[in-house]
Amino acid sequence: MALAIFDLDNTLIAGDSDALWGEFMVANGLVDTESFRADNNRFYEQYKQGVMDIWEYLDFCLKPLTQYPLEALESWHGQFMEQVIIPILLDKGLTRIAKHRQQGDHIMMITATNRFVTERIAEQFKVDTLLAIDLEVSDSHYTGKVTGTPTYQQGKVLRLQEWLNQHPEHSMAGSYFYSDSQNDLPLLKKVDNPVAVDPDPELKRFAEKQGWKIISFR
Description:
Elements: E1 3-6, H1 17-27, H2 33-49, H3 54-62, H4 70-85, H5 91-102, E2 106-114, H6 115-124, E3 129-138, E4 141-147, H7 154-166, E5 176-179, H8 185-188, E6 193-197, H9 201-210, E7 213-215
Parallel strand pairs: 1-2, 1-5, 2-3, 5-6, 6-7
Antiparallel strand pairs: 3-4
């Protein structure tokens, strides 16, 4: 049984769930529209270029979550799933996950987006394990703080190693990782079977140079 690891944003879905959640909050008046949208777009461009400061971004994107109780956030997230996420699930991604499941592989999603945004999405894909940015909760509110290492760039490798230490029945032998982003090069270099999925230009260049498999779920 091998690990079949999948990135989420722009890999299994045709968009970035974190950026789309930001747009959802803007559209529903949950944040100050103009200033939030401008910063949301700025951070997303930095992410695509591989230069985003994860801590600066987390200070920005987690602040709105602290202003509402968990119950209200979960209700809005249900609307977000139906209106925004379900329409952009990629069937070929679902098919590839099903193929790995038939092979008896352990299906894992590792995403640089926080667990609040991604947990229900991971359930849609029926993954066995989700590693995401974990958030601190107090008195039924998010505090705006992160627990553990953020699953971003090298942080994905660190969090995966922590998980492997806790689950010695699994190993990296025969492992796969599917991703679209240059930000995931640290983990792509660690697995036995790196797969570039609809890759960004930097990842595409690197994958071609290394002879990695390049596929499309679009």
